[in-house]
Design brief:
alpha+beta; Alpha-Beta Plaits; 3 domains; 8 strands
Length: 343
């Protein structure tokens, strides 16, 4: 008995009505997978809106959003394969082959996916936290995806970082557990300056800024003398900012630096200078200003001193702290609408 040619076998298969049955199965599988995908998108959008409105339980809602979404997608894919008539027992062998491939060629993809699952369940880093990486990159965690985590910086830049980077490197969480950390602002003054005056002036300047948190027994604004030398006295302003302002460390530090410099300048406190000062202990039996007068330098020194300016320039960094907060709040509110357009 002669074997039928491939062309004759194809004609026989088309004429038997098997094409209609197979086409129906394909359409049904596509419909199942498509409906599952749409269901996941709608569910995630709804849970995301609920998460942004909820005052407590936001991390738990995010975990449900991601885990249930992945589970539904896998269930929809399996249902689609079953509709096509694929034997799930043989699919187990195929899944084993895929596992071998994942261990070889897809190792990086699996690594990022598992790292993403760990991040979702890890309370140390959650969506909405403001973090800083070892590279110095700072931003708010907007989304933890299957491959990468998206950060939004204070410059409105969206940075995509592989999930494994968070597992392998040091991460600073500036807003962990809704707590703020203190910042250090270094400055220096002339060696002969009264330390008590410096402390009073700088403390007043720090408390005058609206984003300085009120003093508590365990969190106080302080001024530390860190070192001293022939060039001057080195201080640090230790301040605890409010939680929202701590999300903007660059502009925050610049605002305090500006305020400290302006306060010292207004009080007539001179900065330390590496220049060499020649001090005349005695000259022809005269000391101090009398010795300078003997050299005809007293008038020159008075001219060299610059009087403080009456007009004060605005502290742009202080305004930037509030501007950044408003802009980031708008970006958070616009995030669900952006995802709706993508869906």
């Amino acid at each position: 008995m002669s074997k039928a040619s491939p062309l004759e076998a194809a004609r026989e298969w088309l004429g038997s009505g098997a094409l209609v049955v197979f086409s129906g199965r394909v359409l049904a599988a596509i419909a199942i997978v498509g409906a599952t995908y749409l269901l996941v998108q709608v569910m995630q959008l709804g849970l995301e809106r609920l998460r942004r409105r909820a005052k407590i339980g936001s991390p738990l809602i995010y975990i449900v959003e991601k885990v249930v979404g992945y589970a539904l997608l896998v269930a929809g894919l399996i249902a689609g394969l079953a509709t096509l008539g694929v034997d799930l027992n043989s699919f187990t062998v195929f899944a084993g082959a895929i596992g071998v491939g994942a261990g070889l060629g897809l190792q990086g993809v699996v690594k990022e996916f598992v790292s993403g699952l760990v991040l979702i369940f890890d309370p140390a880093i959650q969506v909405g936290d403001f973090i800083e990486l070892e590279s110095g990159l700072r931003g708010e965690v907007v989304e933890v995806g299957p491959r990468a985590t998206r950060l939004r910086t204070n410059d409105d830049l969206n940075v995509v970082i592989p999930n494994s980077k968070f597992m392998q490197s040091q991460v600073i969480n500036w807003t962990y557990n809704d707590q703020t950390g203190r910042i250090h602002v270094a400055f220096s003054v002339a060696e002969e300056t009264d330390k008590a005056l410096v402390r009073d002036v700088v403390m007043a300047a720090a408390h005058a800024l609206p984003f300085t948190a009120p003093d508590r027994p365990d969190r106080k604004t302080q001024v530390w003398l860190t070192s001293f030398s022939g060039e001057g006295l080195d201080f640090e302003l230790i301040v605890w900012p409010t939680l929202e302002s701590s999300r903007h460390p660059s502009s925050l530090r610049a605002a305090y630096t500006w305020a400290v410099h302006e306060a010292l300048h207004t009080a007539g406190i001179e900065n330390s200078s590496p220049q060499l000062d020649l001090r005349l202990r005695s000259l022809f039996g005269q000391e101090g200003d009398r010795a300078l007068q003997a050299l005809d330098m007293a008038d020159r020194r008075k001219v060299a001193r610059r009087e403080p300016s009456v007009e004060r320039a605005p502290n742009d960094a202080a305004a930037a702290v509030f501007d950044d907060a408003v802009r980031n709040s708008r970006a958070r509110d616009a995030e669900p609408r952006r995802r709706e357009k993508q869906a």
